[in-house]
Amino acid sequence: MLRQLHLLYCLKNSEEGSAYDVFIVDQLSICVPFLRQYLPKGKILFYGHFPDKLLADHESIIKKIYRAPFDWLEQWSTGLSDVIVVNSKFTKSVYREAFPKITVDPEVLYPCVNTKEALAADSEIAGPFPKNSYVLSVNRFEPHKNIRLALEAFAKAIEDVPANEIAAGKYKLVLAGGYDPRLEWNVSYLTLLRTICDKLGLANTTVWPADGEDALATPSVQKSTVIFLPSVADSIKKKLMANAALLTYTPNNEHFGIVPLEAMLVGTPVLATNTGGPLETIVHGKTGWNYPGTVEKWAPAIKYALFEMPPAERTAMSAHARERVFSQFSETQMAREFEKYSQQAVATVRDPKKGDLRVLETLALIILAIVPLVLFVFIQLLKNSYK
Which residue ranges traverse the bilayer (predicted)? Predict the structure, then answer.
C-alpha cells in the first residue's frame, strides 16, 4: 500500500504524470482516489483478481476491528474507478457480493498465457517419463490447493493395475509446484502427503531443485509411483506438461487458474473441479473434464485418461485444447480486450461529486483512533494469557 502511494507521489511530481490518458491499476485500489484528485486527466481502469477483504483473516474480534476500515476503504476506492475489470465471471460474482455498494458493474477480462513461446517451441518435447504414462498436478504445496484429492483419486484409479507394474513404476503421479521451506504450512502439507502415500502403500520419492533434472532418471525415481517435485523448475514443468496423460487441477473455487491453460496450450487434457474459474476455461468433454471434487468422481476420469482413452480421442481433445487457448486466452486477445476497456474508460464522464478526498481524510483519523485501541486490547489479552 505504502509503495503504491510512493509511486503515485513520484508520478504526481513528474512531468509525465499528467500526460497519461489511462491508468491501469492492478488489484490494490488505495491510489484510485488520489489519481482522481491529483491527476484528473487520466481515467482509471481497475483490474481486480479477488477482493483483498476476502483474503484477509477476520476470525478474531481484534482482527475484525482492525480490518473494518480497510475493508470499507477497499470498497470505496475501488468504486471510484472509471472501469472495473476482473479475471473471471466467478470473480465478478464474488466482487458483486463483497462490494454491494459499488455501482460500476465489473467486466470480465481473462488473463493470457504465452502462446508465442508455444508456437516457437518444438512440438515434441522429450520428458523424463514415457509419454502419457503419468498424471500431473501443478500447485503450491498448501492445504487449500487440495492436492490430497489427486493423490487419493489416483490411488483408487490404479487399484486394478498388476502389482509388478506398480512396483516397476510403470504409471506415476507427479506432484509438482511451489514450495517454501520457511513456511510451516508448506512443510507440514508436504509431510502430510507423504504420510498418505505411505498409508496407501504408494512408493514415493522427493526430488529437490538442488538434485537437478538428472535425478529424475535415477532408478529410485523411475520405480516410484508418486514423485514430489517441490519448487519445480519451469523448464522441467513444461516437459512434464507436454507429456502427461492428464493434468489434475484440484483447488475449489479458484479465482481463475492459469495452470489449466498452460496444460491445454501443449495439448494436455485437464481434470478440474466444477467450481470457479476452470468452469470458464475447460470445455467439459472437449478439452478436459469438470467434476465435483470427490475421489469417487475423479478416480474414473483419471483411469480413463491414463488407461482407456482411444488415441483418436486424445488427438482430437489435444487439438481442441490448443485451439481454445489460442482463440480465447492469447496475448493478442487480452491486448484487444485491454484496448477496448481503456477506450471505454477514456469515454467515461465522471460525477464531479464522487471521489471527495475529505472522506479519505476522515477515514485516516478513524484508523489512527482504532490502531491504538487494537494494540491496547491485544496487550491486555497477552497479559491475561500469562496470569
Answer: 363-382
Looking at residue 137, what is its pLDDT?
98
**Helices 184-200 and 147-157 sit at what angle, rounded to 10 degrees?**
10
301-308 long-range contacts (CB < 8 A, ≥24 apart) are 301/246, 301/271, 302/135, 302/153, 302/154, 302/157, 302/246, 302/248, 302/271, 303/157, 303/158, 305/135, 305/245, 305/246, 305/269, 305/271, 306/132, 306/135, 306/157, 306/158, 306/171, 306/245, 306/246
Q: What is the DSSP pairing of strand 246-249 with strand 226-230? A: unpaired
Cα(72)–Cα(100) distance, rounded to whole angstroms? 11
Q: Show the cell assigned to 90.
A: 466467478
- Phi then psi dihedrals of residue 278, to 5 deg: -60, -20
pLDDT of residue 176: 98
pLDDT tens across 197-247, in order? Answer: 999 999 999 999 999 999 999 999 999 999 999 999 999 999 999 999 999
The CATH number for 115-163+175-196+231-329, chosen from 3.40.50.300, 3.40.50.620, 3.40.50.2000, 3.40.50.10490, is 3.40.50.2000
- Going by C-alpha positions, the residue among 265, 229, 269 that lies closest to residue 245 is 269
- CATH class of the domain whose range is 2-110+334-385: alpha beta
Which residue from 69, 6, 77, 21 is spatially nearest to 46, judged by alpha carbons? Answer: 77
First and final C-alpha spacing in the chain: 38
Q: What residues pair up with 230 in beta bridges, in sequence order?
A: 177
The full DSSP string for 91-110 is HHHHHHHH-TT--SPPEE--
Q: What is the pTM of this model?
A: 0.88
Q: For residue 230, which phi and psi values (nearest 5 degrees)?
A: -70, 140
Determine the Cα angle at 194 with ends 132 and 157, to 5°: 40
What pLDDT is attached to residue 126?
79
The CA distance from 271 to 245, in Å, is: 11
